[in-house]
Design goal:
Number of strands: 4
Number of domains: 2
Distance between the termini: 77 Å
CATH class of the largest domain: Mainly Beta
Number of helices: 1
Shape: elongated
CATH architecture of the largest domain: Ribbon
Radius of gyration: 30 Å
Helix content: 25-40%
Length: about 110
């Protein structure tokens, strides 16, 4: 077989394999618009002071201790999130939100 026929055969085979893929890519690109240019930069933050507080796990709840926003504790087998500074107890004060409820004992 002459080389030009081999090259033509290989080219036709590859085109047969790649054309459906190219058509699929074109269809997907037509459905989803390409992103535009980036917008202007946002303002700088204040070293995290203007962001949300981080979460801190403090272990088992201690009665009378002051907890701050973002503190996480366990009490009665459940995990609780502190929504505002409080000395109240999880489950008894609206300052706490239940995150993970205690499971059943077997």
């Amino acid at each position: 077989m002459r080389p030009e026929f081999v090259a033509e055969h290989v080219g036709l085979t590859l085109r047969g394999l790649l054309d459906p893929l190219a058509q699929r890519v074109a269809a997907l690109e037509a459905r989803a618009p390409m992103p535009g240019p980036p917008g202007p930069a946002g303002r700088d933050g204040l070293d995290g002071k203007d962001g949300a507080p981080g979460l801190r796990y403090l272990g088992v709840h201690v009665d009378g201790k002051t907890y701050d926003v973002g503190d996480l504790v366990t009490a009665g087998g459940s995990a609780w999130y502190c929504g505002r500074t409080t000395t109240g107890a999880p489950g008894k004060s609206a300052d706490w939100q239940l995150m993970v409820k205690r499971g059943r004992d077997r």
